[in-house]
Structures are given as C-alpha cells and as structure tokens.
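I wish you would study the pair of lines that follows with an eye to the fold:

===
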Amino acid sequence: MDEHDMKEAAREAAEDKMITDAFQHLLDTYLASRHRKKVDIITKAFNFARQAHKGVRRLSGEPYIMHPIAVALIACEEMGLGSTSICSALLHDVVEDTDYTVEDIENIFGTKIAQIVDGLTKISGGIFGDKASAQAENFKKLLLTMSDDIRVILIKICDRLHNMRTLVSQPANKQYKIAGETLYIYAPLANRLGLNKIKTELEDLSFKYEHPQEYKTIQDKLASTREQRDILFAQFTDPIREALDKIGVQYQIKARVKSPYSIWNKMQNKHVTFEEIYDILAVRIIFEPKIRKEEINECFNIYVAISRIYKSHPDRLRDWLNHPKANGYQALHVTLMSKQGRWIEVQIRSDHMDEVAEQGFAAHWKYKDGAEYTEDEGELNNWLGTIKEILDDPQPDAMDFLDSIKLNLYASEIFVFTPKGEIKTMPAGCTALDFAFQIHTFLGSHCIGAKVNHKLVPLSHKLNSGDQVEILTSKSQHVQPSWINFVSTAKARAKIQAILRRDDREVQKNGESVLNAWLTNNSLELTSSVLDKLCDFHDVQKPEDLFLALGEKKIILGERDLDELLGKVKKEITNSGWRKYVPFLHGKKDDKDKDEEDEINNLFIVNKDFKKKKPVIISEETINMFIFPACCHPIPGDDILGYIDNKNHIEIHKRACPVASRLKSSYGNRILDAKWDMHKQMYFDATIEIRGIDRKGMLQDVAEVISSRMNLNIHKVTINSDEGIFDGSIEVKVHDRDEVRDIMENLKDIDDLQEVMQIM
C-alpha cells in the first residue's frame, strides 16, 4: 500500500468515526427523551441513508450523511420529536438525491415515514428560484402536505435551520437568496408554530448574512453594554428573589436579551438608535407549580408578590394565560418600573409554558405520557383548515397566495367573541367583514354590516380584542369589488377574489352574447381583428375587459363602432381624438374629475386674518366650503364644531364624535365653534336602527309611517330577521335632526317594534 492509499484509508477511517460519533450522539439524545425507545428503526434508517448517500459530499467538503444526522438531531433535541420524525429526517434527501423511490421507503419503513419523506421531497428546492411563481406553487404543496402531517413542516424547518447554520460554505449570491427566503417564509412559519427559539435563530442568521456590518455593530454594542445590563438585572431581581423565597415558590429567573435582528428591526421601524431601545433586557420568571392544574393561579400569585415591590405599568399587562396566542404561547407579561427609573418587562410562566414557548406545539406531546404526537391541537388545526380553504380557491397568481399567507403569519392576534360568547382568534387589524368570512363564506358574501358590542358598524369597521361581534346579512347583498380594499385576512381576500372572478365570468359571458348579437344584426362576424379594433376604439387592454364593460353596460355599441369597424371614421375625428366620446361610454369620468377639482377649489381656506373666536356659520350658501368627514356624519340640528386641518380647510364634526374628542385633546388651538343656519332646503342622509318582533307587514308599516305620513324619501332599508326577531337600518333623506326625532317618535307607535335608535 503506497503513501497515498494509506492517507486515503486514514481519512476514510476518520470520516467513518466522525459519522458514527454523530449518529451515536443522536441516539443518546433520543434515549434521554420521554419518547418510546424505538432504537432499531432509527438505526435502520441511518444505515439506509448512509449507504444511499455514500461518496457524496456537501459544499463544505464533509460527507453528505452529516446533514441528515444534523437535521434529525435538531428534530430530536430542539423540537422534542420522536422516532417517526427522526427516521424521516435521516431519510429526507434519499428520494430526491438517489435512485430510491418513495415505494422503496414504504416497503422498508412503512406508510407513515414514506408519506413524510414524500412530502419533504415535494417541497424541497426552496420556495424562491428563477421561476418565483412556480416556487410559490411549491409552497402551496408544502402547506397541503403539512395539512396531512404537521411533521413535514417541522422537519423542513429543521432542514432549513441546519442549512442556515452552515451557510458560510455557500457563495454570496446563494447566501442572500437563502437568507431572504428564510426571513420571508421559514421564520414566520416557525413563529406561527410557536418555535420561538428557532424563529429567533433563523432571523439572526438571515440578518447576519444579509446585513453583515449592521449585525456586527449590534453584536459589538450588546457586548459593550453587557456589564451594565448584568448590574441592572441583579439589582432588579434581588428583591424579587427575596419575595418569591418568602412565599415558597420553586423558580429560576433568567435574563432575556433582545436578539440582534429584533433590535435592528425596531431601529428601522421606529427610527431610533440602539441607545434609545429601552426593552433590550427583559426578565423571565420560570416556576414549577405546586399543583399542575393551578399553574395559572400561581402565575397571578407571583405577579401580586412582585407588584408589591415595583409599580406596574397599567397599560402593559398582557394576559396570555387565559387566552393563549394562536401558536400555543402562554405567559403573563407585566412591565415594572425599576428603582433605576427604567421600565422592565417581566414574563411569568410555568416550566411547561416555558417549554411550549421555546419548542411550540412540539412540547405539547411531551406531557402526554411520552406518546408520539397525535394531531389534536385545536388552534393549529384551525390554522391548517384556513390554509386548506385558501387552497380550495386557486388564485391566478401564486405570489399573491404567498403574500396572503405571509400576511396571516406575521399578524398578532386579537380575541373576538361571537354573540353566544365563543372566543374566536383573529389577526390584529381585521375588520367585521374578515370576521364574517372567518365564520362562514355565506355570512361573508351576504354581510351588510355588523353589531359590535351591540352597536351597528359598517363592514370595514376594525375589530379590537374583546369585541363581541354579531354579523348582519341580507340575501340581496352581493360581494363588492371595493371589499378587497379593506379586508386584511388571507381567507376573506381569497374568497372575495374567487366570488368576483366567478361573477366577472358571468358578466363577461353576457357581454360576449351582446357583442355576438350586435355583430349578427350588422352582418358581421366575431374575428380577432374585429375584437382588436373594438378594444382599441374603446381603449381597453384585453377582449375580456371589453366583454366585461359590455356586460356591465359601461360600453353601449352603436353607429360609431360600426363606422370604426367598416373604416368609415372621418380623419378629423380620429385626429381630434374620438376620446371625447369616451366619457359618455365610460360614465363621464372626465366630468367627475372636474367636479372634484371644482369642489377642492370652492373650499374655504383659513388665512392669517381669520378670527378663530367667531363661530363658523353653515348655511345653504356656505355648506360646500367645508369638509364633512365620514366619521360622524353631522346634519343640521347636531351640536358641531370646526377643526382647521393641515391644508387650512375646515372640517365639521359632531361634538360627541370620538375623532373630535381626540382633536380637542391634541389640537385645541385648531378647534372652532360652528353653528347651523339652514332653512329646510337641502336634504341630508340619516340612519335609524330598528329592532323588534318579526311579523307580516312590518316593513309595510315602517314605509307607511315614513313615506306616507311624513312624506319623506327612504333612501335604503336593510332588514335582517332571525328566529322571529328582526333588526335593521333605514337610511332616510331629511332636512335636519328634528325630522329624525319626529320619525323616531312615529315609528315607536308601530306594534311589535321594540327599539328605535339613531345612529351617530
């Protein structure tokens, strides 16, 4: 054996030892867990994968098998997964990179492992690539597979974490690509699954490769301020330890230092410097409950004990105990004022809650007698269900899908109650319409409004935590294109787009029929050249748009279209532009724009000679000079005030309007007195809400009172009836508030009409 062969043999022996040691470490970690000890199948999976990847190396130069071992170790050690997941992690690249098939895996390791490996094979190759849209389709597959077995996504996250930890061996352009998709998809996914520790590491590693200089600067600053933080932590926690020892709690107190990525993110979003971020240090109290079922009460006992030492911030108590986050997170967050004059957040949680916070859903089954995971985590299944529903309505652009999912991944949650008191978890910033679609597509598509805390609100009303929401529907209601502008959840957006597309297809069909009939009447045929000429003539991009406009009657075909098709259009008309006909064809858009301009020009402008102490008088002559925002809808007879806005125009608000309350407290020097001087010449919209016992002829009686007895115009009536009770709203045209009061008095005379209320 020559020297080269001896070196080669020595290298092979060293690599074999490295592989065997790595696998032994994986086995030892698994044996120390609470899972059933299925060592045989794990060893079998390891030997199979080792053989399959033999001779293959990673970019770093190490044997390829080291990667599956590392992924399996993350699954076992950092996620607490069991033998099925460990075997799947060891085998996750076999089908993609070797000649073995899913059927081979199934024959040797059984259906479950084969299904997970198949799921992992389908979604490998990253979400983004040269064909971003096609890669987004991969993401759909990932989520579909995930709905079958959550372990697919968990192992995929382990795989991504190991790739990020070894990213240094990749070329720079690959580093940015992998870091970018990690921040866009995998970190939010980890967060949504409650994998806090992994989410933080993924974010920090991505940040490190995308912004190396900023990452280093923050790391250096964290290192240089560590001593001060340690002193602050000791001074702050010493009295807490004393108090907890007194009440006999088994606990440990940890310092939580904000991660570099979180610090950088805050610096960007809030436009602050490192030194201005006050919550770099937080304190965690992790305790062992005396009685497992009493752990929530024990959290509050600890809170009571420490709030005797430090003053707590009244607006910063976050109770995630009774209402856990959608990712399973439970804790009590309080912010206390330290003796050094700094607000410090304290997170109180039990040992079990702490494990769930770090390992997410994976930690739940640790407490189920060591059994393997069974998919019964309600909140998680709700989320998977939402994804399945979005996938039922395939969207034309897969990237939209990606963005809508991302939208829901990032959102923090609020808790909303149904009329029966059931709690629903919704993303922050969602509207009443989002809530309607969350409950049922039928409710969403026929929603006309909602009652939030028993008060009628429009579809676009943003919900807050703790709101009780009742959805009001009408069979005559249809999905409106404008809805897409204010819904915020992926589910609602997907449903609205699907319904609008379906409606558009119907209208397009009608439009096509109209065009065909018109062409037949004029002895013409539908050809691509005819279509192109008509599209050009009406300034629309595609035939579909032309059909839609015809179906909606925005375009009416006539003599000029015929002249255009037969080439009879006179030259001077073409030169001067046939566009002068377009306003007529498209609903006089130009005139509307002009009106808006005129309206802006008519607005009163406050100059330096304006006397703020004198009231603003609103009469028929001056009313168009003021702005009436939609927040409170004042009409003559209401108590009003004026507010000078940033453009020196005057807004008119009701004095009781919540927006006006805020303006009064913040911009007192811009508030004006305002008075009406109207003479019952103009009409205004007013809305009256009614509620009562449903019976035949009720609507007729209501119309009789308003139209016949009072001779007023009803603008719109919306009635919703449910189990013998009806409620609804009537929009009427009135001269002033006195007329509204008269209507209400007259309505109260109607039998079975129980409540009559005026909406602000």
Notes: The chain has five domains: 9-210, 219-367, 500-595, 603-677, 684-758. Residues 9-210 form a domain with the Hypothetical protein af1432 fold (CATH 1.10.3210.10).
